[in-house]
Structure formats: structure tokens, C-alpha cells
Amino acid sequence: MPITLNEQQETIRKFRSIANFPTVIGAIDCTHIRVKKVNADGGQLYINRKGFSSINVQVVCDADLKIMDIVTRWRGSVHDSRIFRECRLKQRFEAGAFSGILLGDSGYPCTPYLFTPLLNLTTPQEERYNRSHIRTRNTVERCFGLWKQRFRCLLKGMFGDIETAKKTIVACAVLHNMAIDMREDVFSGERDSIEQYSSEPIVQRYIAPSIRGNIRRRQFIETHFQ
């Protein structure tokens, strides 16, 4: 994650250039990486809602599709909101380490530092907020698409032991960032599949916003989307 004020301001500037959504420092989401069936005690906890064994990986990316923060320790049955609730990054936001906010989907609770889309739109301001939110948050979906096309083992699955799979996922994230810095493209002809991945609708169980988060989001909309 960007540490200095200058780094954070540059990250915010790049996100704002997408759809004019201010103060965004990262887009957050989770993606399931398939693993071989775990036969040990607790192996059923790796089975996700789609019925296959996986690791549920949390990622925060920037506007350049680079992975700034990654969590790979959770089994596939764990919900996205719990992973964020128990991660160190949430503690850093609550401690005031960052000057910006995260954007997430409705699978997360709305908090003062993580904004989610509105479900029941009643004003033009809310419609503008949602349109801008969706376009800006879509960077993390595009990040997943590019990352998995670059490293097909993330797309097809990991079939070694679980600890090796976790380390491999992190290694792929580091190499993905290096490839972006070096401007290394994926193979020609694969861009269409990346865009297809990024446009897939993601259905998440709705998580009710916190009272503080709701108030903060309302104030934000009134200030920036009039």
C-alpha cells in the first residue's frame, strides 16, 4: 500500500482519472483459487459456495492493476467480509494510516473507509455515485483477469499441498507487479478474455452497512456528487 502522503495522493489521482471518484486509494475484492481436494480434518471448509475446493484470496489493487495488498490464508468457505474484518489492513485503516478510502462491492459492509454501492437509488446524485463507483471498482476485476491470464495456474488451479499453493499465489502477485512495471503484455489475442472476465456480474450476499459508514457515505455523496 502507498505509505507516504505523496504516494497516496498519486494513487488517488490515478483512480479519480477513471470516473471522477475522489479519494480512492484502492479497490478490494476476493477471488477463489482452486486447490486439490483436502482430505485432512477440516477439508470440507475449503469447499466454496460453487462446490469446489479453493483458497479465498483477498486483493487490493491500484489504478494500474498492480496488487498492493494480498491475503491468502483463508479457506474457500469463508466469506469476503470476514477476511477483511480480520485482516491487518483493516486495522491500519482504523488507525488512520491512509488518507483515502477503499471501494468494495455489496459483499462488504459500508464503513467510513470502505464504500460500497447503493442498492436503492432515489436521487440523481446517488445514480452518479453508483455509476462512478462501479467503473472505478472494476479495476480489481480487471486486475484478476490480467493476473489469471498471465499465470494460468491461478485460472486452472493449484494441485500441490496447501502451503505451497499459498506461497505460489503470493509469488504470482509479485511477478504480476514486476511485469506491469516492465510493461510486459500478456500474449496477443488474450485481451478479449481479460475483458470478458472483468465484465462478469459478481453476485455477493448483501451485507448491511454500519451506521457510521452510512452517515459517512451520505455526506460524501452530498459533497462530491451534487
Automatic annotation (TrEMBL):
It comes from the Eukaryota. Residues 28-177 form the DDE Tnp4 domain. It is found in: Nucleus. Its main location: nucleus. One of its GO terms (cellular component) is nucleus. It holds the Pfam family DDE_Tnp_4. Keywords: Hydrolase, Metal-binding, Nuclease, Nucleus. InterPro entries: HARBI1-like, HARBI1_dom. GO terms for molecular function: hydrolase activity; metal ion binding; nuclease activity. The keyword Ribosomal protein does not apply. Its cofactor is a divalent metal cation. Belongs to the HARBI1 family. This is DDE Tnp4 domain-containing protein.
